[in-house]
């Protein structure tokens, strides 16, 4: 298909399992075309402005696409291999300068402001990260947030320059003129831009060269080609190179910080991209009442209220400290009029039956739900969620591996115990299928037990399974479960 006039080519990285959510979002939010989804990335074309691009909620980092090629030919000779890689990046210098020109045009007058603000946020994040690491008191979710920011896939390494203690970057500094006026021979120098190369490498090439060697070689080649100078501390521009056995990708990130770093979240809890994906499954409509009965720091409620502000949100938690953190987040986000907080136990919610249109919750992974008797509370928790949910409403839960196994055993019990399973279940197949964000059926490929979806009715009487999504939390995997309530309380 032809790319629409004025549209540029992009790709956005995504946490494992969130690619279908991101694919749906770029189509709906950006009117994207030529959408191509691969593991960890979604490629697309759009003519959207920078402000719209910045609103993406399910992606990690957004890049202008410079090159997307099949895997490079592999040479055992390092010199030949480096020559092949360098040719990929700057074999057509005008292409690189054209993409830089697009990058600058997108940022326009806000470019310098954007860079300075993000630079300050980066320093703040590093400082906070150091303090937290020293205290060793981060929750599992926050630890995983940090681990995912670099977005390193299995078998890949970030570039770490010899003379820098920074994670992930080889950096260079550039004196680059207006790229739109530049040609291959004589770039016009009228503004300082800092520059760095980041490289990820896996597969056959990684057995010959390290990411450091590749990043260093590309940096030197770019300096020779354009006369750019190195600067290790404050890069404005980055060239991102990802090489594996599936594709060869080169791009320029639009923003210094990941899209997943929300400016409205003061205290980080559940990863924001996961929270948004969960909320997107809940079918929130104007005037709906939405409950998170184990809200923690309120990340799910924040993501939902920002995206669907015409609904009313309630957060419940038994912990004073969690509620205090949630209150800070809600005030920081300016959502005091949208979200109400209440101290109570999820096992005995002081709320009327059938009073909420959606229940969304991250069943805690930390100290509360280690492999102990606490896991046995899951049926009680589900029963109470079912009680407060309206008929036709949805429940969306995030479950750890252990809770996922427990849920599977509950559903197996349902197959044996439920003598009045609804007749509509007869047409359901046992294949592991899940609804993608746009409601179309899509194969999971996560090894989800067939018994879950083959059981059309749970022991809770009216909750019908409506999809399972395997997602990554960095070091661990988790599962998003969706249910729909089909009948009134017993």
TrEMBL record:
Q: Quaternary structure per UniProt?
A: Part of the heterodimeric THUMPD2-TRM112 methyltransferase complex; this complex forms an active tRNA methyltransferase, where TRMT112 acts as an activator of the catalytic subunit THUMPD2.
Subcellular localization = Nucleus
| Entry GO CC | nucleus; tRNA methyltransferase complex
Q: Which keywords does UniProt give here? A: Methyltransferase, Nucleus, RNA-binding, Transferase
Can you cite a GO biological process for this protein?
tRNA methylation
A Pfam family: UPF0020
Select a single GO molecular function from the record's annotations and give it.
RNA binding
The entry sums up its family as follows: Belongs to the methyltransferase superfamily.
Species of provenance: Hemiprocne comata
Ranges for the THUMP domain?
Answer: 144-254
- Stored InterPro entries: RlmKL-like_Mtase, SAM-dependent_MTases_sf, THUMP_dom
Q: Please tell me whether the keyword Cytoplasm is annotated for this protein.
A: no
Q: What does this protein do?
A: Catalytic subunit of the THUMPD2-TRM112 methyltransferase complex, that specifically mediates the S-adenosyl-L-methionine-dependent N(2)-methylation of guanosine nucleotides, most probably at position 72 (m2G72), in the U6snRNA of the major spliceosome. This modification in the U6 snRNA affects the constitutive splicing efficiency of introns that have suboptimal splice sites and can impact final mRNA levels.
Q: Which gene encodes it?
A: Thumpd2
Name under which the protein is recorded: U6 snRNA (guanine-N(2))-methyltransferase THUMPD2
Q: What chemistry does it catalyse, as a reaction equation?
A: guanosine in U6 snRNA + S-adenosyl-L-methionine = N(2)-methylguanosine in U6 snRNA + S-adenosyl-L-homocysteine + H(+)
Query: Which top-rank group of organisms is this from?
Result: Eukaryota
- Its main localization is nucleus
């Amino acid at each position: 298909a032809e790319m629409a006039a004025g549209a540029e080519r992009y790709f956005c990285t995504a946490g494992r399992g969130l690619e279908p959510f991101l694919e749906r979002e770029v189509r709906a939010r950006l009117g994207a075309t030529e959408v191509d989804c691969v593991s960890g990335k979604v490629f697309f074309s759009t003519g959207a402005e920078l402000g719209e691009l910045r609103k993406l909620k399910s992606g990690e980092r957004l890049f202008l696409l410079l090159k997307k090629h099949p895997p490079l030919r592999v040479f055992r000779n390092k010199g030949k291999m480096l020559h092949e890689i360098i040719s990929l990046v700057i074999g057509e210098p005008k292409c690189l300068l054209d993409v830089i020109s697009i990058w600058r045009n997108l940022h326009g007058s806000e470019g310098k402001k954007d860079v300075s603000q993000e630079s300050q946020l980066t320093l703040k994040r590093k400082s906070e990260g150091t303090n937290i690491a020293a205290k060793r008191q981060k929750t599992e979710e926050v630890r995983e947030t940090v681990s995912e920011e670099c977005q390193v896939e299995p078998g890949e390494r970030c570039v770490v320059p010899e003379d820098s203690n920074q994670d992930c970057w080889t950096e260079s500094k550039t004196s680059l003129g207006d790229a739109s006026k530049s040609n291959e021979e004589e770039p016009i120098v009228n503004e300082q831009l800092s520059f760095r190369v980041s490289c990820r490498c896996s597969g056959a090439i990684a057995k010959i060269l390290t990411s450091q060697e590749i990043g260093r070689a590309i940096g030197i080649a770019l300096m020779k080609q354009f006369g750019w100078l190195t600067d290790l501390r404050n890069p404005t521009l980055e060239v991102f190179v990802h090489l594996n056995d599936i594709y060869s990708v080169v791009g320029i990130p639009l923003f210094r910080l990941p899209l997943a770093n929300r400016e409205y979240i003061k205290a980080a809890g559940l990863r924001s991209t996961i929270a948004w994906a969960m909320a997107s499954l809940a079918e929130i409509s104007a005037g709906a009442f939405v409950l998170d009965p184990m809200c923690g720091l309120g990340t799910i409620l924040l993501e939902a209220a920002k995206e669907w502000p015409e609904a009313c949100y309630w957060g419940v938690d038994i912990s004073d400290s969690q509620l205090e953190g949630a209150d800070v987040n809600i005030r920081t986000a300016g959502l005091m009029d949208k979200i109400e907080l209440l101290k109570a136990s999820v096992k005995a919610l002081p709320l009327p039956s059938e009073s909420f249109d959606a229940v969304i919750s991250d069943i805690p992974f930390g100290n509360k739900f280690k492999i102990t008797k606490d896991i046995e509370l899951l049926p009680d928790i589900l029963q109470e969620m079912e009680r407060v949910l309206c008929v036709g409403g949805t429940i969306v839960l995030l479950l750890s591996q252990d809770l996922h196994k427990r849920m599977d055993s509950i559903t197996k019990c349902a197959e044996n115990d439920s003598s009045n399973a609804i007749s509509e279940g007869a047409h359901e197949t046992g294949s592991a299928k899940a609804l993608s964000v746009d409601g179309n059926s899509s194969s999971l490929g996560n090894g989800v037990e067939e018994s879950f979806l083959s059981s059309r009715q749970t022991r809770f009487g009216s909750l019908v399974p409506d999809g399972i999504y395997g997602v990554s939390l960095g070091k661990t995997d988790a599962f998003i479960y969706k249910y729909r309530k089909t009948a009134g309380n017993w």
